[in-house]
Amino acid sequence: MGSPAAAATASIDYSEPDGGSLQLVLSLSELAPGETPDLDSLSASFEGQQLDASIEAIDDASGEESIARTAVLALDVSNSMRGAKFEAAKSAASAFLDEVPSDIEVGLVTFASEVTVAQEPTTDRDAVRAVIDELELSAQTRLYDGLLEAVTVSGDEGSRSVLLLSDGADTSDTPLAEVESKVERSEVVVDVVALAQNAADTDTLSGIARAGNGQVLSADDPAALTDLFADRAADLASQYLVTVTPPAELAGDEGTLSLALDVGGQPVLDDAFVTLAAASEEPAEAAPATPQPVDPGLTVPVEYMYAGIAAAALGFLAIIGLLVSGGREARQDAVDRGIEAYTRKGAKRLAEANRASENQSVTQQAVAVAEGVLEGREGLEVKLGAKLDAAGLALKPAEWLLVHAGVTVVFGMVALLLSGGNVLYMVGGLFLGGVGAWVFLSFKHRRRLKAFKNQLANTLQLMSGALSAGLSLAQSVDTVVKEGTDPMASEFRRALIETRLGVEIEDALAAIAERMGSVDFEWVVMAIRIQRQVGGNLAELLNKVAETIREREYLERQVMALSAEGRLSVWILGGLPPVFMLYLVLTNPTYVGVMYSTPLGWAMLILMGVLLTVGIFWMKKLVKVEV
After folding, report:
1. Within 13 A of 575's CA, how many CA atoms are on the CB side?
2. Which of 139, 141, 136, 235 is nearest to 197 (CA)?
3. In this predicted structure, what is the pLDDT of residue 287?
4. Which helix (H) or strand (E) holds 95?
5. DSSP string for 51-90
6. Alpha carbon distance 120, 105 (integer Å)
């Protein structure tokens, strides 16, 4: 009969670098009662070369030197465990809790038709026992999924182990090869308790145990479960912390590390493939490192930042004041304000305003400065005024220019403050504010033009009905003003006021077509001119034009539907590269940093931008169909 010590085995369960040393968890199992290893007999070798090593019980290691340990129980709670099996499994789990060292965090995962994390790893043994007492059975056995969940719950740091109990084959769709691969990569020790299983199922579990550097423990009788679980807890109590210090010439090398330890006069051996850490250095006498100044980049002095805050606040208040005053002026019709200067009361008011020009408010002075900027640039002022009119904004070009500048300054100052004074962010904020205000104006412009176009057919039909009822053309325009909606009603109201001032109604309507950029309405005005010169039934003519416009709108919608896929492709293919680039910049800036920190990267970005722009332009041309 061999000595009990000869049956003892050793296993390197975990390794991690610690400064210039390598720490390993050495597990001893199948020790005879009362048997302890000879710690002074430890020897360590790396590829045949002896290394300095020390060993101590993990329980004796100090907090800084100790390694965190986690154990997860994965229990089968399928209906096949009903009766004595289930009660024995709960008793075995309780026995495990009684024997496992107090510093080990214990978790519990159950699997049947569902995989459940019944208890996250904790050192509170009573909490785990309470969960075990409440376990219930259900159908199926998702063994593989339960094992993978237990491996995940064990975490990714320290020494980790999983003890799996099952009495049946897996019923999930998870491939066995995938389970073994994930277990092997996780570096978690997996021991499997096969309860009354056939040889084929036991072989399958053996493959899982080999992948987890563990073993299969077979139990034909449920009563044997308690001893198996208690023995596994005792193995965790027989773990030792081995510290290996490699020489400088082996620092960073990879290879096989072998450990040998005497137990009861007999050596127990194990080896593992490891990466040695760098040799430790003694920094005790080293002078404290002088912190190196960090270049904050291009920044602004604090006093300038406060000045910027004040300027931004004043600009914001000026914008608010302009908008409020502009809102009051918008309530008065623009034509009425133009006529008022020629009345006795209006002339007097104008003279008083001229005399008080030196006492203008800050807002008025700012508008005067903006008007001075636009002087000599009549083309810009005319275009900007036309766009403001078409967008329905009651602002003069000079007022809009002031608002635009204020928004730009506010965005720049906000970006400067949020970035802690970085001028590059301020430039980005200025660009965003300048472009954003113009985008807003363009959006308002396009939306109003689209609304006008959509209302045109119904407006012509309304005018036709009024003419058929015996009303004049001017009265039919007034009908649209009273019964229509904006923007059609407001544009026709302006045309009606112009006719009352002596402008021909055709010219007033032509001005609407020019402001709104509507080719269809130009046709309507042309038809009205012809009818007034040669005569004819204008109501019927307007009906025909409305019918033609509706047919064209139907064709446009049909074309839009047929070309929707191509237009969506333009957005997706054109937006995917910059969006993905932005994602990489935010999530992994180191990986993508070479694209904007090297000449080759800048060249690639420029080439990408050119090709992307050409591609977007070409695709838009392909899917754009004029009706």
Report:
1. 6
2. 141
3. 47
4. helix 84-99
5. EEEEEEEGGGS-TTT---EEEEEEEE-BGGGTTHHHHHHH
6. 9
pLDDT value for 381: 65
HSE-CB for 592 with a 13 A CA cutoff: 12
Q: What contacts 281, CB < 8 A, 6 or more positions away? A: 20
| Predicted pLDDT of residue 607 | 92
Q: How far apart are CA 277 and CA 245, in angstroms?
A: 8
pTM above 0.85, yes or no: no
Strand partners, 47: none
**CB distance 487 to 454 below 8 Å:** no
Which amino acid appears at position 511 of this protein? A
pLDDT below 50 — which residues of the chain? 1-6, 280-287, 294-298, 323-335, 342, 344, 356, 358-359
Q: How far is CA 260 from CA 56, 126, 236, 268, 533, in A?
A: 14, 38, 19, 6, 115
Three-state DSSP string of 116-148: EEEEEEECCHHHHHHHHHCCCCECCCCHHHHHH
Please enumerate in sequence order all residues whose Cβ is within 8 A of that of 20, keeping only pairs 6 or more positions apart, or say none.
245, 246, 251, 277, 278, 279, 280, 281
Q: At what angle do helices 84-99 and 225-237 cross, to 10 degrees?
A: 20
Beta bridge partners of 166: 194
Query: What tens digit of pLDDT does each residue of 261-272 get?
Result: 888 778 888 888
- Paired residues of 239 in beta bridges: 27
Asked if 123 contacts 35 with a C-beta cutoff of 8 angstroms, the reply is no
What six digits make up the tokens of 90?
């709960």
End-to-end CA gap in the chain: 101
Q: What are phi and psi of 366, to 5 degrees?
A: -65, -40
Instruction: Supply the pLDDT for residue 332.
Output: 43
What does the pLDDT look like over 389-399, one tens digit per residue?
Answer: 777 777 777 77
Q: How many CB atoms lie within 10 A of CB 327?
A: 11
Per-residue b or e along 35-66, where b marks 16 or more CB atoms closer than 10 Å to that residue's CB: eebeeeebebbbeeeebebebeebeebeeeeb
Cα(439)–Cα(262) distance, rounded to whole angstroms? 80
CA atoms of 156 and 414, how far apart (whole Å): 42
Integer Cα distance of 307 and 301 in angstroms: 10
SS3 164: strand
Tokens 């970005």 sit on residue: 605
In sequence order, the β-bridge partners of residue 116 are: 110
Residues 6+ apart with CB under 8 A from 2: none
Instruction: Kindly give, in sequence order, each residue whose CB lies less than 8 Å from that of residue 245, ignoring residues fewer than 6 positions away.
Output: 20, 21, 22, 51, 52, 53, 279, 280
Euclidean distance between CA atoms 297 and 422, whole angstroms: 7
Please report the pLDDT score of residue 321 as a whole number. 57
Q: How far is it, in rounded angstroms, from Cα 611 to Cα 603?
A: 12
User: Which pLDDT does position 124 carry in this prediction?
Assistant: 92
Angstrom distance (rounded) from CA 315 to CA 308:
10
* Per-residue confidence (pLDDT) for residue 117, from 0 to 100: 92
Instruction: Give the whole-angstrom CA distance, residue 9 versus residue 263.
Output: 9
> Does the bond joining 487 to the residue before it have cis omega, within 30 degrees of 0?
yes
With 0-12 / 13-18 / 19 or more C-beta atoms within 10 angstroms meaning exposed / middle / buried, residue 189 is buried
Task: Round to whole Å and give the CA distance between 472 and 532.
Answer: 12
